[in-house]
Amino acid sequence: MIASVEFGRFSFAVGPNAFLLLSVLMFSLGIAAVISRRNAVGILMGVELILNAAAINFLTFGAAGGSIDGQVFGVFVIILAAAEAAVGLAIVLNLFALFKSIDVERAGTLKG
């Protein structure tokens, strides 16, 4: 048991399987968003879902193993996601300034 949820007189034990299932669902939704979206902001949201799923996995296995390593890696993933969001949004702003659209299909015409 990793967590316990209480509703009045009722108490439910939440094991690692629930957190791993949540992580799989978030990862799957993130992959689907990255593959299916043409909008750059939607792709960035998908990448954020993938990174948060990885953080949940680190925290789950760290709590199940009784070590603090999962929390350390979880914080590292959150910092990485914040940096990725800042750089990704800067790229999206430059893409919009150049093409007046955030459609990633138009980014294929960039020359450098």
Describe the structure.
The protein has a two-stranded antiparallel ribbon. A hairpin with a 2-residue loop joins strand 1 and strand 2. The protein has one domain: Helix Hairpins (Orthogonal Bundle), CATH 1.10.287. Helix 1 packs antiparallel against helix 2 and helix 2 runs antiparallel to helix 3. The protein has helices at 16-36, 40-65, 69-99; strands at 3-7, 10-14. The chain is mostly helical and 112 residues long. The chain is 70% helix and 9% strand. The chain has 3 helices and 2 strands, in the order ββααα. The mean pLDDT is 87. The radius of gyration is 18 Å and the shape is elongated. The longest helix is centred in the last third of the chain and has 31 residues, at 69-99.
Task: Produce the secondary structure layout.
Layout: E1 3-7, E2 10-14, H1 16-36, H2 40-65, H3 69-99
Antiparallel strand pairs: 1-2
Helix pairs in contact: 1-2, 2-3
